[in-house]
Amino acid sequence: MNATDVREAVTRAHRDEWARIVAGLTRRFGDLDIAEEAAAEAFATAVERWPADGVPPNPGAWLTTTANRKAIDRIRRESRRDDKHREAQVVYDAGPPEPAGAIDDDRLRLIFTCCHPALATDARVALTLRLVGGLTVPEIARAFLVAESALGQRITRAKAKIKAARVPYRVPAAEDLPARVSGVLAVLFLVFNEGYLATGPGTDPVRQDLTAEAIRLTRLIRALLPDDGEVAGLLALMLLIEARRPARLSAGGELVPLAEQDRGAWDAELVAEGHRLVRERLAAAAAGTAPGRYQILAAINAVHTSARDIRDTDWSQVVALYDQLVRLDPSPVVALNRAIAVAELDGPEVALAVVDRLAGPLDGYHAYHAARADLLRRLGRGGESRAAYDRAIELAGNTAETAYLARRRDELR
Protein backbone atom coordinates (compact mmCIF):
# COMPACT_ATOMS: atom_id res chain seq x y z
CA MET A 1 0.00 0.00 0.00
CA ASN A 2 1.51 3.33 -1.07
CA ALA A 3 1.53 6.63 0.83
CA THR A 4 -1.50 7.94 -1.06
CA ASP A 5 -3.57 4.89 -0.13
CA VAL A 6 -2.59 5.29 3.52
CA ARG A 7 -3.52 8.98 3.54
CA GLU A 8 -6.88 8.14 2.01
CA ALA A 9 -7.42 5.43 4.62
CA VAL A 10 -6.64 7.86 7.46
CA THR A 11 -8.93 10.49 5.94
CA ARG A 12 -11.74 7.96 5.53
CA ALA A 13 -11.28 6.69 9.08
CA HIS A 14 -11.36 10.25 10.42
CA ARG A 15 -14.59 10.92 8.57
CA ASP A 16 -16.23 7.67 9.71
CA GLU A 17 -14.85 7.23 13.21
CA TRP A 18 -13.99 10.61 14.76
CA ALA A 19 -17.35 11.31 16.37
CA ARG A 20 -17.75 7.72 17.59
CA ILE A 21 -14.30 7.75 19.21
CA VAL A 22 -14.74 11.14 20.89
CA ALA A 23 -18.22 10.21 22.13
CA GLY A 24 -17.05 6.86 23.47
CA LEU A 25 -14.08 8.41 25.25
CA THR A 26 -16.32 11.08 26.76
CA ARG A 27 -18.69 8.44 28.06
CA ARG A 28 -15.83 6.46 29.59
CA PHE A 29 -13.69 9.25 31.04
CA GLY A 30 -16.19 12.10 31.48
CA ASP A 31 -13.78 14.74 30.17
CA LEU A 32 -14.07 16.45 26.79
CA ASP A 33 -10.44 17.61 26.76
CA ILE A 34 -9.18 14.09 27.38
CA ALA A 35 -11.57 12.69 24.76
CA GLU A 36 -10.62 15.17 22.04
CA GLU A 37 -6.87 15.05 22.69
CA ALA A 38 -6.74 11.27 22.96
CA ALA A 39 -8.67 10.92 19.70
CA ALA A 40 -6.33 13.38 17.97
CA GLU A 41 -3.30 11.50 19.30
CA ALA A 42 -4.72 8.22 18.02
CA PHE A 43 -5.07 9.62 14.51
CA ALA A 44 -1.58 11.13 14.71
CA THR A 45 -0.27 7.68 15.68
CA ALA A 46 -2.08 6.17 12.70
CA VAL A 47 -0.39 8.67 10.39
CA GLU A 48 2.98 7.58 11.80
CA ARG A 49 2.47 3.81 11.99
CA TRP A 50 0.12 2.82 9.19
CA PRO A 51 2.61 3.58 6.37
CA ALA A 52 5.03 1.06 7.92
CA ASP A 53 2.64 -1.44 9.53
CA GLY A 54 -0.15 -1.23 6.98
CA VAL A 55 -3.75 -0.18 7.48
CA PRO A 56 -5.37 -2.49 10.08
CA PRO A 57 -8.27 -4.71 8.98
CA ASN A 58 -10.61 -2.75 11.28
CA PRO A 59 -9.33 0.86 11.40
CA GLY A 60 -12.12 1.99 13.73
CA ALA A 61 -11.34 -0.66 16.35
CA TRP A 62 -7.60 0.09 16.10
CA LEU A 63 -8.18 3.81 16.58
CA THR A 64 -10.60 3.25 19.45
CA THR A 65 -8.16 1.00 21.29
CA THR A 66 -5.29 3.41 20.67
CA ALA A 67 -7.33 6.42 21.81
CA ASN A 68 -8.36 4.65 25.01
CA ARG A 69 -4.73 3.84 25.77
CA LYS A 70 -3.73 7.45 25.10
CA ALA A 71 -6.44 8.68 27.46
CA ILE A 72 -5.38 6.30 30.20
CA ASP A 73 -1.73 7.29 29.76
CA ARG A 74 -2.62 10.94 30.08
CA ILE A 75 -4.65 10.39 33.24
CA ARG A 76 -1.79 8.44 34.78
CA ARG A 77 0.61 11.26 33.98
CA GLU A 78 -1.59 13.83 35.65
CA SER A 79 -0.46 14.65 39.17
CA ARG A 80 -4.13 15.25 40.08
CA ARG A 81 -5.44 12.06 38.54
CA ASP A 82 -7.57 11.23 41.59
CA ASP A 83 -9.38 14.55 41.22
CA LYS A 84 -9.97 13.81 37.57
CA HIS A 85 -11.41 10.41 38.43
CA ARG A 86 -13.77 12.07 40.89
CA GLU A 87 -14.77 14.66 38.26
CA ALA A 88 -15.55 11.87 35.82
CA GLN A 89 -17.64 10.08 38.44
CA VAL A 90 -19.65 13.26 39.04
CA VAL A 91 -20.38 13.47 35.32
CA TYR A 92 -21.55 9.87 35.21
CA ASP A 93 -23.71 10.19 38.30
CA ALA A 94 -25.22 13.66 37.69
CA GLY A 95 -28.98 13.67 37.31
CA PRO A 96 -31.46 10.82 37.18
CA PRO A 97 -30.87 7.85 34.90
CA GLU A 98 -32.32 8.01 31.39
CA PRO A 99 -35.85 6.66 31.08
CA ALA A 100 -36.37 3.23 29.61
CA GLY A 101 -36.61 3.26 25.86
CA ALA A 102 -34.40 6.31 25.35
CA ILE A 103 -32.22 6.04 22.27
CA ASP A 104 -28.79 4.76 23.27
CA ASP A 105 -26.39 6.59 20.97
CA ASP A 106 -23.16 8.06 22.27
CA ARG A 107 -23.03 10.72 19.58
CA LEU A 108 -26.53 11.88 20.44
CA ARG A 109 -25.49 12.07 24.09
CA LEU A 110 -22.46 14.09 23.07
CA ILE A 111 -24.59 16.53 21.06
CA PHE A 112 -26.90 17.24 24.00
CA THR A 113 -23.86 17.72 26.22
CA CYS A 114 -22.29 20.18 23.78
CA CYS A 115 -25.63 21.97 23.32
CA HIS A 116 -26.37 22.40 27.01
CA PRO A 117 -28.11 25.72 27.85
CA ALA A 118 -25.24 26.57 30.22
CA LEU A 119 -23.34 27.49 27.03
CA ALA A 120 -23.93 30.43 24.73
CA THR A 121 -25.48 29.48 21.38
CA ASP A 122 -22.36 30.20 19.34
CA ALA A 123 -20.28 28.12 21.78
CA ARG A 124 -22.70 25.20 21.48
CA VAL A 125 -22.47 25.23 17.71
CA ALA A 126 -18.68 25.59 17.62
CA LEU A 127 -18.09 22.85 20.16
CA THR A 128 -20.44 20.39 18.47
CA LEU A 129 -19.01 21.04 15.03
CA ARG A 130 -15.58 20.30 16.45
CA LEU A 131 -16.33 17.29 18.65
CA VAL A 132 -19.20 15.67 16.76
CA GLY A 133 -18.74 16.91 13.19
CA GLY A 134 -14.96 16.58 13.33
CA LEU A 135 -14.48 19.91 11.56
CA THR A 136 -11.20 21.72 12.03
CA VAL A 137 -10.99 25.10 13.73
CA PRO A 138 -10.38 26.87 10.34
CA GLU A 139 -13.46 25.22 8.84
CA ILE A 140 -15.64 26.25 11.77
CA ALA A 141 -14.19 29.77 11.73
CA ARG A 142 -15.28 30.10 8.12
CA ALA A 143 -18.80 29.02 9.05
CA PHE A 144 -18.88 31.67 11.79
CA LEU A 145 -17.09 34.36 9.75
CA VAL A 146 -14.73 34.91 12.71
CA ALA A 147 -10.97 34.71 13.23
CA GLU A 148 -9.51 31.26 13.90
CA SER A 149 -7.92 32.42 17.17
CA ALA A 150 -11.26 33.70 18.46
CA LEU A 151 -12.98 30.48 17.45
CA GLY A 152 -10.34 28.38 19.20
CA GLN A 153 -10.80 30.37 22.39
CA ARG A 154 -14.56 29.94 22.12
CA ILE A 155 -14.22 26.16 22.00
CA THR A 156 -11.77 26.13 24.91
CA ARG A 157 -14.07 28.25 27.05
CA ALA A 158 -17.06 26.05 26.17
CA LYS A 159 -15.29 22.90 27.35
CA ALA A 160 -14.20 24.64 30.54
CA LYS A 161 -17.78 25.77 31.18
CA ILE A 162 -19.08 22.21 30.75
CA LYS A 163 -16.57 20.96 33.31
CA ALA A 164 -17.25 23.80 35.76
CA ALA A 165 -21.03 23.41 35.47
CA ARG A 166 -20.74 19.61 35.71
CA VAL A 167 -22.94 19.16 32.64
CA PRO A 168 -24.12 15.53 32.54
CA TYR A 169 -23.29 13.32 29.59
CA ARG A 170 -26.75 11.98 28.75
CA VAL A 171 -29.82 12.55 26.63
CA PRO A 172 -32.14 14.87 28.64
CA ALA A 173 -35.24 13.53 30.34
CA ALA A 174 -38.42 13.62 28.25
CA GLU A 175 -39.81 16.70 30.03
CA ASP A 176 -36.63 18.67 29.30
CA LEU A 177 -36.29 17.77 25.63
CA PRO A 178 -38.49 20.47 24.02
CA ALA A 179 -36.56 23.29 25.68
CA ARG A 180 -33.24 21.76 24.68
CA VAL A 181 -33.95 20.70 21.14
CA SER A 182 -33.85 24.11 19.41
CA GLY A 183 -30.15 24.54 20.14
CA VAL A 184 -29.44 21.04 18.88
CA LEU A 185 -31.33 21.71 15.64
CA ALA A 186 -29.28 24.84 15.01
CA VAL A 187 -26.10 22.82 15.41
CA LEU A 188 -27.27 20.04 13.12
CA PHE A 189 -28.29 22.53 10.45
CA LEU A 190 -24.83 24.06 10.47
CA VAL A 191 -23.23 20.61 10.29
CA PHE A 192 -25.48 19.84 7.32
CA ASN A 193 -24.62 23.13 5.63
CA GLU A 194 -20.90 22.46 5.99
CA GLY A 195 -21.43 19.17 4.17
CA TYR A 196 -23.79 20.67 1.59
CA LEU A 197 -21.30 23.39 0.64
CA ALA A 198 -17.98 22.58 2.30
CA THR A 199 -15.79 25.58 3.10
CA GLY A 200 -12.45 23.94 3.82
CA PRO A 201 -9.86 24.54 1.04
CA GLY A 202 -8.55 20.98 1.37
CA THR A 203 -11.92 19.22 1.53
CA ASP A 204 -14.29 17.88 -1.09
CA PRO A 205 -16.75 20.57 -2.27
CA VAL A 206 -19.67 18.42 -1.10
CA ARG A 207 -19.12 16.31 2.03
CA GLN A 208 -21.72 13.57 2.04
CA ASP A 209 -20.35 12.25 5.33
CA LEU A 210 -21.48 15.42 7.11
CA THR A 211 -24.86 15.67 5.40
CA ALA A 212 -25.53 11.99 6.11
CA GLU A 213 -24.50 12.37 9.76
CA ALA A 214 -26.70 15.44 10.22
CA ILE A 215 -29.66 13.60 8.71
CA ARG A 216 -29.00 10.50 10.82
CA LEU A 217 -28.91 12.46 14.07
CA THR A 218 -31.97 14.49 13.08
CA ARG A 219 -33.85 11.23 12.51
CA LEU A 220 -32.84 10.12 16.01
CA ILE A 221 -34.14 13.36 17.51
CA ARG A 222 -37.38 12.98 15.56
CA ALA A 223 -37.76 9.51 17.09
CA LEU A 224 -37.44 11.17 20.50
CA LEU A 225 -39.80 14.04 19.62
CA PRO A 226 -42.16 12.75 16.90
CA ASP A 227 -44.66 15.58 17.46
CA ASP A 228 -42.14 18.45 17.33
CA GLY A 229 -42.85 20.45 14.18
CA GLU A 230 -39.41 22.02 13.89
CA VAL A 231 -37.66 18.64 14.11
CA ALA A 232 -39.86 17.38 11.28
CA GLY A 233 -39.29 20.62 9.39
CA LEU A 234 -35.51 20.39 9.67
CA LEU A 235 -35.52 16.75 8.58
CA ALA A 236 -37.70 17.62 5.57
CA LEU A 237 -35.41 20.54 4.69
CA MET A 238 -32.30 18.35 4.84
CA LEU A 239 -33.90 15.59 2.77
CA LEU A 240 -35.07 17.95 0.03
CA ILE A 241 -31.63 19.55 -0.21
CA GLU A 242 -29.80 16.22 -0.04
CA ALA A 243 -32.05 14.87 -2.79
CA ARG A 244 -30.49 17.36 -5.20
CA ARG A 245 -26.90 16.40 -4.37
CA PRO A 246 -26.40 14.01 -7.35
CA ALA A 247 -27.06 16.93 -9.72
CA ARG A 248 -25.10 19.65 -7.88
CA LEU A 249 -21.65 19.00 -9.35
CA SER A 250 -20.66 18.81 -13.00
CA ALA A 251 -18.28 16.16 -14.35
CA GLY A 252 -15.56 18.81 -14.15
CA GLY A 253 -16.22 19.49 -10.48
CA GLU A 254 -18.11 22.76 -10.96
CA LEU A 255 -21.15 23.72 -8.93
CA VAL A 256 -24.40 23.40 -10.90
CA PRO A 257 -27.02 25.94 -9.73
CA LEU A 258 -30.63 24.90 -9.21
CA ALA A 259 -31.78 26.42 -12.50
CA GLU A 260 -29.35 24.26 -14.50
CA GLN A 261 -29.64 20.96 -12.62
CA ASP A 262 -30.82 17.74 -14.24
CA ARG A 263 -33.95 17.17 -12.19
CA GLY A 264 -34.13 13.60 -13.37
CA ALA A 265 -30.97 12.94 -11.35
CA TRP A 266 -32.57 14.00 -8.07
CA ASP A 267 -33.22 11.28 -5.51
CA ALA A 268 -36.95 10.65 -5.92
CA GLU A 269 -37.28 8.76 -2.62
CA LEU A 270 -35.79 11.60 -0.60
CA VAL A 271 -37.98 14.12 -2.42
CA ALA A 272 -41.08 12.06 -1.67
CA GLU A 273 -40.18 11.70 2.01
CA GLY A 274 -39.47 15.41 2.30
CA HIS A 275 -42.76 16.32 0.63
CA ARG A 276 -44.65 13.98 2.94
CA LEU A 277 -43.17 15.67 6.00
CA VAL A 278 -44.01 19.12 4.60
CA ARG A 279 -47.61 18.07 3.96
CA GLU A 280 -47.87 16.85 7.56
CA ARG A 281 -46.68 20.22 8.84
CA LEU A 282 -49.02 22.09 6.48
CA ALA A 283 -51.92 20.10 7.93
CA ALA A 284 -50.79 21.07 11.43
CA ALA A 285 -50.58 24.72 10.37
CA ALA A 286 -54.12 24.53 8.97
CA ALA A 287 -55.21 23.26 12.38
CA GLY A 288 -53.76 26.34 14.04
CA THR A 289 -50.14 25.38 14.78
CA ALA A 290 -47.92 28.18 13.49
CA PRO A 291 -44.92 26.91 11.50
CA GLY A 292 -41.37 27.66 12.64
CA ARG A 293 -38.28 28.65 10.71
CA TYR A 294 -37.28 25.16 9.54
CA GLN A 295 -40.82 24.29 8.49
CA ILE A 296 -41.00 27.40 6.29
CA LEU A 297 -37.59 26.69 4.75
CA ALA A 298 -38.73 23.13 4.05
CA ALA A 299 -41.88 24.45 2.39
CA ILE A 300 -39.77 26.73 0.16
CA ASN A 301 -37.67 23.77 -0.90
CA ALA A 302 -40.81 21.73 -1.48
CA VAL A 303 -41.98 24.37 -3.98
CA HIS A 304 -38.63 24.16 -5.80
CA THR A 305 -38.61 20.35 -5.89
CA SER A 306 -42.24 20.19 -7.02
CA ALA A 307 -41.48 22.04 -10.27
CA ARG A 308 -40.57 19.83 -13.22
CA ASP A 309 -38.57 22.72 -14.71
CA ILE A 310 -37.22 25.97 -13.29
CA ARG A 311 -39.76 27.81 -15.46
CA ASP A 312 -42.57 25.98 -13.66
CA THR A 313 -41.52 27.30 -10.23
CA ASP A 314 -44.27 29.15 -8.37
CA TRP A 315 -42.18 32.20 -7.47
CA SER A 316 -45.11 34.05 -5.95
CA GLN A 317 -45.50 31.23 -3.43
CA VAL A 318 -41.75 31.26 -2.74
CA VAL A 319 -41.82 35.01 -2.04
CA ALA A 320 -44.91 34.63 0.16
CA LEU A 321 -43.12 31.96 2.21
CA TYR A 322 -40.07 34.21 2.54
CA ASP A 323 -42.38 36.96 3.78
CA GLN A 324 -43.43 34.60 6.58
CA LEU A 325 -39.83 33.72 7.28
CA VAL A 326 -38.73 37.36 7.48
CA ARG A 327 -41.24 37.91 10.25
CA LEU A 328 -39.66 35.05 12.23
CA ASP A 329 -36.05 35.68 11.24
CA PRO A 330 -35.42 39.23 9.99
CA SER A 331 -31.74 38.52 9.31
CA PRO A 332 -29.80 39.98 6.35
CA VAL A 333 -29.21 36.48 4.92
CA VAL A 334 -32.96 35.76 4.81
CA ALA A 335 -33.54 39.17 3.19
CA LEU A 336 -30.90 38.31 0.58
CA ASN A 337 -32.54 35.00 -0.27
CA ARG A 338 -35.93 36.69 -0.48
CA ALA A 339 -34.46 39.26 -2.90
CA ILE A 340 -33.19 36.47 -5.16
CA ALA A 341 -36.75 35.13 -5.37
CA VAL A 342 -38.10 38.64 -5.95
CA ALA A 343 -35.82 38.92 -8.97
CA GLU A 344 -37.73 36.06 -10.62
CA LEU A 345 -41.07 37.64 -9.81
CA ASP A 346 -40.49 41.38 -10.24
CA GLY A 347 -37.23 41.55 -12.17
CA PRO A 348 -33.52 42.06 -11.36
CA GLU A 349 -33.71 45.85 -10.95
CA VAL A 350 -36.21 45.62 -8.10
CA ALA A 351 -34.17 42.88 -6.46
CA LEU A 352 -30.88 44.78 -6.83
CA ALA A 353 -32.29 47.74 -4.94
CA VAL A 354 -33.06 45.40 -2.03
CA VAL A 355 -29.66 43.68 -2.23
CA ASP A 356 -27.72 46.95 -2.26
CA ARG A 357 -29.31 47.91 1.05
CA LEU A 358 -27.70 44.83 2.60
CA ALA A 359 -24.15 45.87 1.74
CA GLY A 360 -23.18 46.76 5.31
CA PRO A 361 -23.96 43.55 7.19
CA LEU A 362 -23.16 41.21 4.28
CA ASP A 363 -20.03 42.73 2.75
CA GLY A 364 -17.92 39.79 3.98
CA TYR A 365 -20.41 37.16 2.77
CA HIS A 366 -19.56 35.65 -0.60
CA ALA A 367 -23.17 34.78 -1.49
CA TYR A 368 -24.12 38.46 -1.25
CA HIS A 369 -21.56 39.42 -3.90
CA ALA A 370 -22.45 36.39 -6.04
CA ALA A 371 -26.14 37.35 -6.01
CA ARG A 372 -25.29 40.96 -6.78
CA ALA A 373 -23.00 39.88 -9.64
CA ASP A 374 -25.79 37.84 -11.21
CA LEU A 375 -28.32 40.67 -10.93
CA LEU A 376 -25.87 43.15 -12.46
CA ARG A 377 -25.13 40.70 -15.28
CA ARG A 378 -28.84 40.39 -16.02
CA LEU A 379 -29.09 44.19 -16.16
CA GLY A 380 -26.22 44.40 -18.67
CA ARG A 381 -23.82 46.13 -16.27
CA GLY A 382 -20.84 43.98 -17.17
CA GLY A 383 -18.04 45.92 -15.49
CA GLU A 384 -19.81 46.11 -12.15
CA SER A 385 -20.81 42.47 -12.46
CA ARG A 386 -17.19 41.38 -13.00
CA ALA A 387 -16.07 43.32 -9.95
CA ALA A 388 -18.78 41.66 -7.86
CA TYR A 389 -17.78 38.23 -9.17
CA ASP A 390 -14.16 38.97 -8.24
CA ARG A 391 -15.19 39.80 -4.69
CA ALA A 392 -17.37 36.67 -4.44
CA ILE A 393 -14.51 34.48 -5.68
CA GLU A 394 -12.16 36.09 -3.16
CA LEU A 395 -14.51 35.25 -0.29
CA ALA A 396 -15.82 31.84 -1.41
CA GLY A 397 -14.27 28.84 0.30
CA ASN A 398 -15.85 26.09 -1.80
CA THR A 399 -13.81 24.93 -4.78
CA ALA A 400 -16.81 23.95 -6.91
CA GLU A 401 -18.54 27.25 -6.24
CA THR A 402 -15.37 29.17 -7.03
CA ALA A 403 -15.09 27.35 -10.37
CA TYR A 404 -18.70 28.22 -11.21
CA LEU A 405 -18.29 31.88 -10.28
CA ALA A 406 -15.04 32.15 -12.27
CA ARG A 407 -16.72 30.74 -15.38
CA ARG A 408 -19.67 33.13 -15.05
CA ARG A 409 -17.28 36.05 -14.65
CA ASP A 410 -15.17 35.00 -17.63
CA GLU A 411 -18.26 34.66 -19.82
CA LEU A 412 -18.76 38.41 -19.45
CA ARG A 413 -15.61 39.00 -21.48
UniProtKB/TrEMBL annotation:
The keyword Transcription regulation applies. It comes from Actinomadura luzonensis. Residues 111-162 form the RNA polymerase sigma factor 70 region 4 type domain. Belongs to the sigma-70 factor family. ECF subfamily. Residues 22-81 form the RNA polymerase sigma-70 region domain. Residues 180-280 form the DUF6596 domain. This is RNA polymerase sigma factor. Keywords: Sigma factor, Transcription, Transcription regulation. PANTHER family: BLL6612 PROTEIN, BLL6612 PROTEIN-RELATED. Signal peptide: none annotated. InterPro entries: DUF6596 (IPR046531), RNA_pol_sigma70_r2 (IPR007627), RNA_pol_sigma70_r4_t2 (IPR013249), RNA_pol_sigma_r2 (IPR013325), RNA_pol_sigma_r3/r4-like (IPR013324), TPR-like_helical_dom_sf (IPR011990), WH-like_DNA-bd_sf (IPR036388).
